[in-house]
């Protein structure tokens, strides 16, 4: 049983997927360039000509197997402003990547998925670092959010599309305070998918 949370499933029409992804990116660029709630400071918006992205790559659209945590542990995430935020580790997502690093023979990886301790039903929050972090992507890591259409149980599958990985708003403005990916979500692999960031 598979669930992407976005209705795409596993058998994707790559051309349609790529078109929809590029449309989402264009919408986000429009938001960043013109919307009053854009994280781009107002004085910088006229010069803003769009976010930087890795090329769409379906290789980084993978199916993850879900492990649930019935009594989830609290994870204290440091923030970019030097504080802490309390999250619950509610799921672990295990997946393989075809383009693993040479020293990682099995290509098997895990990411923890969290929810804020103070909040109930909300998207699964998956912050992560990889070997692009601080080089081709933001030094504070990147985020993914997953919105499955049912409560996930052990052994369920969910789509992880790293092409949707995005840069937190604090990369663009000091007025935001963003959680930093905990060490358990630091991936020892290069994932050139999603948003790039050049400081």
TrEMBL record:
Residues 1-47 are annotated as: Disordered. Pfam families: DUF1684. Residues 14-32 have a biased composition (Basic and acidic residues). This is DUF1684 domain-containing protein. It comes from Natrialba swarupiae.
């Amino acid at each position: 049983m598979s669930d992407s949370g976005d209705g795409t499933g596993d058998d994707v029409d790559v051309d349609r997927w790529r078109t929809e992804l590029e449309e989402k990116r264009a919408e986000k660029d429009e938001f960043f360039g013109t919307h009053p709630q854009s994280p781009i400071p107002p004085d910088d918006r006229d010069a803003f000509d769009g976010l930087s992205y890795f090329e769409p790559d379906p290789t980084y659209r993978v199916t993850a197997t879900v492990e649930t945590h019935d009594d989830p542990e609290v994870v204290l995430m440091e923030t970019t402003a030097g504080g802490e935020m309390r999250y619950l580790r509610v799921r672990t997502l295990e997946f393989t990547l075809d383009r693993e690093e040479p020293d990682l023979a099995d290509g098997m990886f895990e990411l923890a998925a969290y929810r804020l301790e103070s909040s109930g039903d909300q998207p699964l929050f998956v912050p992560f670092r990889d070997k692009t972090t601080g080089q081709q992507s933001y030094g504070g890591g990147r985020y993914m959010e997953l919105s499955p259409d049912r409560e996930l149980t052990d052994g369920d599958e969910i789509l992880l599309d790293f092409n949707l990985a995005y840069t937190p708003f604090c990369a663009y403005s000091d007025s935001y305070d963003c959680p930093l990916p905990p060490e358990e979500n630091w991936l020892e692999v290069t994932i050139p998918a999603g948003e790039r960031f050049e400081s």
